[in-house]
Design a protein that fits this description.
Two copies of one chain form a homodimer.
Chain A (H helix, E strand, L loop, with lengths): L6 H8 L3 H9 L6 H14 L5 H8 L3 E8 L8 H14 L4 E8 L4 H13 L4 E4 L4 H13 L4 E4 L10 E4 L2 H13 L7 E7 L7 H16 L6 E7 L5 H14 L3 E6 L4 H8 L8 E5 L3 H8 L5 E4 L2 H16 L8 E3 L3 E3 L4 H9 L6
Parallel strand pairs in A: 1-2, 1-3, 3-4, 4-5, 5-11, 6-7, 6-8, 8-9, 9-10
Antiparallel strand pairs in A: 10-12
The first copy, chain A, binds a DNA duplex (30 and 30 nucleotides) through α2 and α4.
DNA sequence: AAAGCAGCTGTGTTCGCACACAGCCTTTAC
DNA sequence: GTAAAGGCTGTGTGCGAACACAGCTGCTTT
């Protein structure tokens, strides 16, 4: 264990030169059968393990990853995966891994496609992207395959497509979990509402999956006798409109006792409800935004589900690294934990996201 | 960005040799004021960052960490920190970090002290240990300080002592959290019991802290009107005795509706209650042992709190690595997240602990 | 028989940095 | 005055692996 076995040791033991050992290790050919067997024997005997440090130094290669994600300036959510990608890139920069960012407007499939094509033309070693648009993303993956550029997906999976890996949340299950969390405060006959605060709800597959999950929970637990309704609302930036929307909802359903906000905009609801007369409402939402955390702490939000968006970016880069530099196997689908966050435990998650503890 | 700046580049720019640059970087002295300033100037100008890979290769040092933890064969809990330490050691082995394990019997301060002394005599580079016994651990830390061996603590902190870092759980807060989780199923006037299944409860500071936390939660929420009692029981291996203990407890307190099991032995309670007639009891416990998970899945345990024991070991080794190899600052106190685990989200945590995704 | 050509092999250089060492030149001591 | 003692500098070697290249064999070709 102590003096690590080097290539020279096996060269000596098997009676050949370091060059031959190297050829065997890399399967470069030009090695006689006899020599190869001797070397393999010696490697097994001494339990040889190549020195990763020396190896990366000698390779002297560089791996260019281009990350294509929605513009974080138009949607603060994307700051988080971005920050995770940046952290990971700091951790692996010594190995010659370079990460470059390209952004596309959240709602523009055409710009998405155009940017992706430009990236592919620049011939990066890996493409890391968020395939928000199914059709265009399929095209991109096919072009990558044609040029032998491996692709890693985050946020949204394209199940049927060839890709190095997918790192993201399990939206359906997060809906199921929300059901569980909401049921604590409810009584038979109560109702809950799924609230989608988004512009183009039909395109937001995640939101629909979350709703499906929530409904699944309550249909698996029929004895709890909870009804589920759904309400979409686009003008969440307008406090006045929000307030009207909400009071309309509450007036229409007197037994509405729980809200499930399907994205990170819970705080919009509570901002709007500030003045409203209303019953005690159970509230479950997503993401540890400062505005949400304030309401969590004052117990106006009961639970936040943390989808670990920072980890999402981090883990995607690390998977690429593991695959291409360390040549390790990588899971095709990597779901991140769904953390249940309440006022009593949120501080740990915030600290983790700030991520003082960078690994290597 | 692309062609990384090397020591030669700054040597060229500042008009000195690589040797002098090296002396400046390491503050080895023997450099004229003028040369030093030129080099520093050039480093700033080119934004020089030493190549970690080349550096570790050239150092060719080895860092021996000895880990002293309770024997995992006598307490399965310790398999988890152990596995975390092993994982981390795999991740950093390329940097010359070697981890060696020494075990001590859970309940023997003298053996603990003896093993620690032997380790220190063997002169490791770092000592990583679980200071279960206050008095003896203080002695050990002082000996480490005298021999300039840095020490990292896991599981239990010695607040007043000099140490590189502490990685562990926040027991008090986990009790508070348990209070929050229990209260969901309770009504005013109900009672909860803290159940300590341990041999030497007075020595188990963590258990006492958890109880304090639970009581703190309910005294901060007096309107919930929940009474807290405590029950210690040592003979948890004996199903017959357990059953009598439990039925005694339930008979004595008719409004007992919640149990908080302060360590990982929740499954013992449920094993014993299998035949028992009993009201619907809310149950909160710790740790994702398979036996506990089975009860979680069948909803006989409502919540498990995950203290991330695997992470504990992992993070401790990584902190040592960050401090001594990467020369980064490390937080003195590192609390791990308190994950709330229910049947709807446990699978992610189990997958994480199995830890396919090893970082570097 | 000479030339050509594979198949196989060892040596040498490189990656960027750490550190030993020899070679200055200047100061101080006697 | 010389010797010793510094202060400061550049060169050179090594860490372990990757890869280029030259050299060696034995074989086929003409």
């Amino acid at each position: 264990m102590h003096p690590r076995i080097t290539i020279k040791d096996i060269a000596a033991l098997s009676g050949v030169s370091a060059g031959t050992v190297d050829r065997v290790i890399h399967g470069r050919g030009n090695v006689s059968r006899k020599a190869r067997e001797l070397v393999e024997q010696a490697m097994r005997e001494l339990n040889y393990e190549p020195n990763l440090i020396a190896s990366t130094l000698a390779y002297n290669r560089t791996l260019k990853i281009t990350a294509l994600i929605p513009d974080y300036r138009s949607d603060p959510y994307w700051e988080q995966p971005k920050s995770g990608i940046e952290k990971a890139s700091l951790a692996v920069r010594h190995y010659g891994v370079q990460v470059e960012f390209v952004y596309f407007p959240m709602f523009s499939p055409s710009r998405f496609l155009k940017e992706a094509e430009e990236i592919i033309d620049a011939n990066p070693d890996v493409l890391l992207f968020a395939p928000l648009f199914r059709e265009e993303s399929g095209q991109i993956l096919r072009r990558c395959a044609a040029r032998k550029i491996p692709a890693a997906l985050i946020n949204t999976d394209l199940e049927d497509q060839e890709a190095l890996c997918y790192v993201g949340q399990d939206s359906f299950q997060s809906g199921v979990l929300a059901g569980k969390l909401l049921h604590f405060g409810l009584r038979p006959g109560d109702m809950v509402a799924v609230i989608n605060l988004d512009k183009q709800i039909m395109h937001a597959r995640h939101l629909l999956e979350k709703e499906r999950g929530l409904r699944a929970y309550f249909s698996r637990h029929p004895w709890e006798d909870i009804g589920v309704i759904r309400a979409d609302f686009e003008h969440f930036e307008d406090p006045q409109a929000m307030q009207e929307f909400l009071s309309g909802l509450l007036n229409a359903h007197s037994r509405l006792k729980g809200l499930f906000i399907s994205n990170s905009r819970s705080y919009r609801i509570l901002d709007a409800m500030a003045g409203l007369e209303r019953p005690r409402l159970r509230l479950v939402g997503f993401d540890l935004l400062p505005a949400n955390l304030a309401y969590l702490e004052s117990n106006q939000i009961d639970f936040l589900i943390n989808q670990n968006p920072v980890q999402q970016g981090y883990q995607a880069v690390m998977s690429i690294f593991n695959h291409l530099i360390l040549r390790k196997k990588v899971e095709r689908v990597q779901y991140l934990p769904l953390d249940i966050v309440v006022s009593e435990n949120y501080s740990y998650y915030v600290a983790k996201e700030k991520g003082f503890q960078v690994l290597v």
